[in-house]
Every structure is written in C-alpha cells, then in structure tokens.
Design goal:
Shape: extended
Strand content: 15-25%
CATH class of one domain: Alpha Beta
Structural class: alpha+beta
Radius of gyration: 36 Å
CATH architecture of one domain: 3-Layer(aba) Sandwich
Number of strands: 22
Strand order of the largest sheet: 10-9-8-7-12-22
Helix content: 25-40%
Number of helices: 17
Distance between the termini: 63 Å
Length: about 575
C-alpha cells in the first residue's frame, strides 16, 4: 500500500489477470465503505472478467510479436508426413494421418497457404528521382494513391488567370478524401510522370478515371489549405429524376449522383453554390456524388421555361372543370372557383414559379399525448378508395374515425345528424365556402357536398386516426404542420380480368385499360411528389391487409416529413 492507502502494483511486472486477483484479495470491507467494497469485490471476482483479461493479454502479446506464417506451404508438409508412413504405426500416428487426409483439414491447410503466400501490401513504383528544376523542393508534394475501380473522387478546373490545373473539389468519402493528401486549391502538375499542363480538364479526368492500381500525382500544395468542413446533416427528398450522364453542365459526369423522384439524399457539403455533394440514404457507397444545387437547378429551369423548352409547371396550369367520368369514385365535380375561371387563360410568370426540385425532410414520430397524423388517401380511376377507407374504420372504429361531410340536401328518414352527414342550409354552406372552411366541395343534383376542416379536427381531438379520401388538389390545403398528413396513393393493379370486374361500362376492356393507365399516370405526374406510399390494389383483401400494416407503421415508426413542419 502506498501513502494514499491504495494498493500499488507495477503493471510492467504482473499480468493483468494476476493483478486483478491480487487486487480482489486486498479488498477488506470496513464499516465506512462496506457496501461499495463488497460490490467491487463481487465485480472483480467474476470469472468472465478474468477471462477477458487473459484474452486481452494474449492479443497484446501476439500483436507485439508481429506474427508471420511459420510455413508458406503447410499442404506440402502434410503430404510429406503422409509419405513417411513405413511399417506398423502407433495409434497416435494413425490418428494424425487420418486427420491429415480428411477433406476439411486439407481445405484449412489450403486456405492457410493462400493467405500465407499472398502479399497484402500495395505494390508501389519507386519515387521519381528527378524534380523540375524550376520548382523548389519544399513546394512540391508527390502523392501516391492506390486506386481500385472506384472513381478518384476529385474534380479539377483550369485557372483562367494562370492556366494552372487546380483541384476544384474533393468528394466526401472518395479515395482522395480518405487519403487526406489532396486538398481543394492544390495545383496538379503531373499524373503518373506525364505533364498535364497542355491537356484539357476533361482529358485529365479521363486519364484519372481510367487509371488502375497506383496513381502518382505531382502537386503544388495550395498556399492556404481550407479546414475540412464538418459533414452536413441536411436531408432532402428529391422531387425530380436526375441522370448525370444526360447533364452537359455537370463538371464531371462520373462524379454525379443519379437519383429518382422520392429518393432521400443526405447533403454532406454545400461549399459549392452550384454543385452540392450528397449520398443516397441507405446506400452502402461511402463516396458522395455531385447533385445540382437548388439555386442552380431553379435558375436553369427558369431559363428553359423562358426559352419555351420546358412545359409549364403543373402549379401554373389553368385549372379545368370537366364532366366527371363514370368511373370516378365521386359523383360530383369539384369547384375551383378561387383558382380562376376554367376558360380564362393564364400566362405563366417565370419569376413566381414553384419548381419541384428538393424538399428538406427530417425524421418524425408522434410523441405520447400528441394528436395522431392525418391519413390522406387519393386514388386513380378504379381504385375504389372510399370502400377501402370504410372497411378500415368499420373493423376498428375505436382507433379510426371518419370526417363526416356536410351537405345541403334534406335529411332522409334513416339518417342521423353528424353520423352520415352534417345537414346545413345552402346559405350556411356558401358562407363556409367564403370563409375557407372546406378542404373540398362540389355540387350534385343541385345539392352541395363538402368536407370541412372542422370535421377533421373533431376526429383528431378524440385521439383517433382520421382517414380522409379526397381529390389530390386538396393536398394543397391539408399538407401543413397542423395535420402532418401521411399521403397514400391507391392505384388498381391493371389486368384484363380485373378491368371487367371494376368497370361496368359498355366500351371494350382495351379502352378501359388505357383509361385506367392514363388516370394513374396523370395523378402520379401531377401529385406524386406529395405521396409517401403507393399502394397497388391487386384485390380488396390484400389491399386492406397492406393498408392496416402501413397505418400501424406510420404511428409506431419514425417517418420522413418536411422539415418545415417541425420548425413552424
């Protein structure tokens, strides 16, 4: 014991597990710290802890020995032993020969030889003996990278003032970034001993991308190397498809990150205002890729629209009000008076266009005591969304609720106020329209029908999950932080046997099939960027089961939602 009263043990003179045993023996509980010392003694006396200490010692000892294979061909040694058998054998010798002849043991020896004979160190060429005479030795950096089939992960540009080839950006997670030897602003002089000052950047990029094995770069380091920026935690949902090899503006097509509408992207760098670096969420590739920034993508879309090469965005198209097709689930047509008259032409204004580019998102899960998320169902022709919604509510009325619609028609004898409908006067209905109380409304046989915001709040305030099936235009009103809706797009599985069941029409199945496909495609094109899940309805039973599983998941597992919902 030292002056402090604690046991002093030299770690150099004893094994760790022996030290642990000695320490345990020195723990004698006294009156003041009895419980603490008893606890420590119990912990230190655990056999598993002693075993861990022994394993730790063996590994450290093995590491210090710098292990190398005793033999590079254990298989040959085993064959030599088998050839030595001459005359009668002892029991141990017979057992050894039997083991050496078994397929499994031979496979182990073969695996050993493969590893022992392989050189795992990269084979690098010797450093160049000469440097340019006009370069100071301390200003030149020779960088040698071992590259496999993946891109190098760096882009270059030509300095307009000096003509030098400069490293423009380092892709996060790429080979250059992992090496820590190449930085933004470095001047590139040679690649594999070849001068590149006379080559175009695209030619140099081609050389780098096609090089395999080791790449030797002669670099003039940047005067001031920028500090490595901390990786961003910005997540975006892509609202358009992007193919780098079709984008002539990208600085390096091989470095581009292709994505589809709906993909989740983690932006790891926004240092470049034009080209961000991003990864797809869930992608195993560590290297980031280039994506157009919001500002750049919006700028070129405005230009294309101005030049007439880009169709008018859906948000600016004049609304149409046409007769509802027989297959439509609703028998009344929606009014859109507040959006402008159907026949009135509208000229798109390129300065006030909301282009679909990215939407910032974050994970969200309703907290205990928080109102459930609103479930919004939209469906193309033949999806029969209303029937699907009614079945969910009927099977579990305590958990799910229906937003009771309003109507101006007279109440029938079997109907109850607030159950089938809220029955109000036409004057009251029109007043509510003017006050913006309906998410959608329409007229059928001179009677008005509509779904109000208040009816949705009534269900949610009872801590029930409210299911509404609406025309997709209503999403503009519902998609807010107030409701945090989860949007499900229901589309029928289109096949000829099903068409004849769904459609009781006089025209042939071929025309039915075409109409259903067009309906689904139009809805997906116009509103697919707002959809969280696409449910392909093959039959009512499987669709109901899939929807019920999905509804459980929405309330129990984190979902990606617009970041603005949680900031507002």
């Amino acid at each position: 014991r030292g002056e402090s009263g604690f046991l002093e043990i030299s770690a150099d003179s004893r094994w760790l597990h022996e030290t642990l045993a000695l320490l345990t023996s020195q723990l004698h509980p006294d009156a003041n710290h009895k419980e603490d010392l008893v606890f420590l003694k119990d912990v230190f006396s655990e056999k598993s802890l002693g075993y861990l200490m022994k394993i730790h010692e063996k590994l450290k000892q093995y590491e210090q020995q710098s292990p190398t294979p005793v033999l590079h061909s254990a298989t040959c040694l085993a064959e030599d032993v088998e050839e030595l058998q001459n005359g009668p054998l002892e029991e141990d010798e017979r057992e050894l020969l039997f083991l050496l002849s078994t397929p499994h043991f031979k496979a182990v020896l073969s695996a050993h030889d493969t590893v022992a004979q392989k050189n795992f160190d990269p084979v690098l060429p010797p450093l160049p003996d000469d440097l340019d005479d006009d370069l100071e030795e301390e200003s030149v950096k020779i960088v040698r990278l071992v590259k496999n089939k993946e891109p190098l992960g760096a882009t270059i540009r030509r300095d307009e003032a000096t003509g030098a080839v400069i490293v423009a950006r380092i892709m996060r997670g790429g080979a250059a970034d992992r090496s820590g030897l190449v930085h933004v602003g470095d001047e590139l002089r040679e690649v594999n001993g070849n001068l590149i000052s006379h080559k175009r950047p695209d030619e140099i990029s081609q050389i780098l991308s096609q090089s395999q094995g080791s790449i030797t770069l002669k670099i003039i380091p940047a005067v001031v190397e920028e500090d490595k920026v901390k990786e961003s935690r910005v997540y975006l949902r892509a609202l358009f498809d992007y193919t780098p090899f079709e984008d002539k503006a990208t600085p390096c097509q091989e470095a581009g990150l292709p994505f589809k509408r709906g993909d989740l992207l983690q932006v790891v760098s926004q240092e470049d205002a034009t080209w961000w670096q991003a990864k797809r969420v869930g992608d195993s590739n560590l290297r980031a890729g280039l994506i157009p920034s919001t500002q750049f993508q919006e700028r070129r879309l405005r230009y294309r629209m101005k030049m007439g090469s880009l169709p008018t965005p859906a948000s600016l198209r004049a609304p149409t009000c046409k007769s509802v097709l027989p297959l439509l689930r609703r028998s009344f047509r929606l009014r859109r008076d507040r959006q402008g008259s159907p026949g009135e032409p509208q000229t798109p204004d390129a300065n006030h266009t909301d282009f679909l580019i990215y939407e910032e998102v974050t994970h969200y899960l309703p907290r205990p005591g928080e109102r459930p998320r609103l479930i919004v169902l939209i469906g193309s022709l033949g999806a029969r969304v209303t029937e699907l919604k009614q079945k969910v509510i009927t099977e579990n009325p305590r958990r799910y609720g229906l937003a009771v619609p309003h109507t101006t028609r007279a109440r029938k004898g079997h109907e109850r106020e607030g159950v089938e409908y809220h029955f109000i006067t036409k004057a009251a209905f029109e007043s509510d329209i003017q006050n913006g109380k309906f998410i959608e409304y329409g007229e059928y046989k001179d009677n008005l029908y509509g779904t109000s915001l208040e009816s949705i709040h009534r269900v949610l305030d009872q801590n029930k999950v409210c299911l509404v099936d609406v025309q997709p235009e209503a999403l503009k009103t519902l998609r807010t932080s107030e409701f945090k809706p989860y949007v499900i797009f229901v589309r029928p599985h289109i096949s000829f046997p099903e068409i004849t069941t769904i459609c009781k029409c006089k025209f042939p199945p071929e025309e039915d099939l075409h109409e259903l496909k067009q309906s689904a495609e139009r809805m997906d094109k116009s509103y697919g960027h707002w959809v969280d899940y696409v449910l392909v309805k093959e039959d009512p039973v499987s669709a109901l089961a899939e929807l019920q599983v999905l509804l459980d998941r929405v309330q129990m597992e984190p979902q990606w939602v617009p970041g603005s919902w949680l900031r507002s």
